[in-house]
Specification:
Length: 140
Amino acid sequence: MSKERPFFKGSDTSFGIFYPTDYLIAVFPTPDIAHQAASSLLAAGYTDEDVRAMDSTHVKADIEARVTDATWLDQLKQTFSIGKEAYFWNEDLKWAEQGAGFLAVHCATEDEAQRIVTMLRPLQPISMRRYRALAIETFS
């Protein structure tokens, strides 16, 4: 989602909708909490190549750019995208408009995802989800 350098390993879309496979995305009430979460993960041994905190302005601009800059084929895919992908994209936009903070963490295994979720829960995220190859796993 970063314009400075690519962050997500591999493709971060599926059918024209944001879908970063092998990443856990957490949404927090404020950007400060998202940055605190990133700092906690970095202190636990994760690298800045695998952890990225983003503010609402960045996420909102990214979503809007993906819609505005989409090719006609991507626009068609976005229009007909159903299920969790489109739901979370719309939710992310809603939370970004409310000033939320976002965190993306690369986690390729179930064990790693559980470790990250355990570390993030005390910070009371609004939402946590992991994009797997064929499904989006949510955590409460």
